[in-house]
Amino acid sequence: MSAQNAPAAVVVMGVSGSGKTTVGALLAGRIGARFVDADDLHPAQNKAKMHAGVPLTDEDREPWLRLVGEAIRTERALGRSIVVACSALRRSYRDLIRNEAGDVSFMHLAGSRELLGQRLDARMGHFMPAALLDSQLATLEPLGADEQGAVLDVAVTPEQAVDAALAALAAA
Asked: pTM, whole model, 2 decimals?
């Protein structure tokens, strides 16, 4: 996606229910990239805590975020693009990913508390309960002006969000 045609590294970020997996998988398909859901990289104890409604600590997240960065670095080293769905709520979390992976574009899926809550309430069989939405929103630090990426509205269709992400990547 850059002038040098380097493999793309994109993290689709946001709180639970924002559509990271849906948008990330669609985006990966559109750019011919591997898709990884960072939830699959969580150790079992993290999933158990979240399922029990217990927010993760930064200590819980650090090894997981390093794994996310390593997955990105590995794909890029193989000359392949990658899109990862990962909450990446705090700047320090995104910094951990960048420290492992190098340059990464972050596509932040953002929306109202009401819409996000409705989406979580409609979701079945996910380990992340709707009760943790407020803690995630309180943790969320928007992208800084010096961070590569864009904010995408979740009130649009997933296809429209992907179009917006592609436009942002092309403009970078």
From this structure: 0.88
Query: Positive or negative CA dihedral for 172, 104, 38, 53?
Result: negative
Q: Strand 105-110 relative to strand 82-85: parallel, antiparallel, unpaired?
A: unpaired
For the chain, give the percent of residues with pLDDT over 90.
67
* Long-range residue pairs from 131-138, CB within 8 A, at least 24 positions apart, any chain: 131/53, 132/16, 132/50, 132/53, 132/55, 133/15, 133/16, 133/17, 135/55, 136/15, 136/16, 136/55, 136/87, 136/89, 137/15, 137/113
Domains, the chain, ranges and CATH?
9-171 (3.40.50.300)
